[in-house]
Amino acid sequence: MDDRIPPWAPWAFGIPAAAFFVGLALDLPTLRLVTKPIPVLVLALVVATVAPRTRYRTLVGMGLVFGATGDLLLELGQFVPGLVAFLIGHLWYLAGLWGLDRRLSPGTAIPFAIWGVGLTVALADGAGDLLAPVAVYAAVLCIAMWRGGSLLGTDLPRAAVWATFGGLVSFGVSDSLIAIDRFGPEVPGARWVIMVTYWAAQALVAGGAVALDTRHVPADA
Fold it and tell me: Which residue numbers in the chain have pLDDT < 70?
């Protein structure tokens, strides 16, 4: 673990996450509602207090806060407002990623373009009236993965780059599974996998922000 991570952070993240899974296993909606946003809010606090003082830190922190808001809305059954909250969170991440690297990297875009188009086509029948917002969300999600992948060609610290890219791809897996489970065939145990990959995604993105070295960050990032 990065020695800049405060010792209380893993506990503050892990205990409510474990409690959420207890609520999931025992079907306790109030426990799930209370605990679900806490791990990502803990990550936002860690980023705000530990990550290097850059614009990127602020943007990632905002993305995490909107992610926690989306957690709460989805647990309340508010799918579209939750989708909007996560969309805004991804836009914050995108703004930060663009500041770190503005090369187009078209080769990196290809697999994620295929991912987004394939997911949208697969969901076309089941999504119905929600296909347009789902397609927009899928596009933004895949653009974020593309921009994360573009960091692999920079001189930013390897730990920060791989954590950020891995986190964004894990986000893609989690959100794609949400969409498939909701609009396609039901996926057994989907919520467990969704939450594990989601929390891993947010933790990796936050860890990437902490691991950045300001000596390699552009002045306006």
Answer: 1-2, 219
DSSP 100-117: H-----HHHHHHHHHHHH
Expressed in angstroms, the distance from the first to the final Cα of the chain is 25
Structure tokens at 10: 């893993």
Burial (CB < 10 A; 0-12, 13-18, 19+), residue 188, is exposed
3-class SS at 52?
A: coil
Placement of tokens 């933004």 in the chain: 140
Nearest 5°: the CA angle 167, 168, 170 is: 65
pLDDT in tens, 108-160: 999 999 999 999 999 999 999 999 999 999 999 999 999 999 999 899 999 99
The predicted pLDDT at position 32 comes to 98
CA-closest candidate to residue 50, choices 215, 157, 207: 207
pLDDT at 219: 66
Q: Answer yes or no: are the C-beta atoms of 47 and 27 closer than 8 Å.
A: no
Determine the Cα–Cα distance for residues 194 and 150; give it in Å rounded to an integer: 25
User: Residue 136 has which token pair?
Assistant: 């927009």
> Hey, what's the torsion of the CAs at 108, 150, 134, 84, to 10 degrees?
180
Q: Give the chain's radius of gyration (CA, Å).
A: 17
Measure CA 172 to chain center: 8
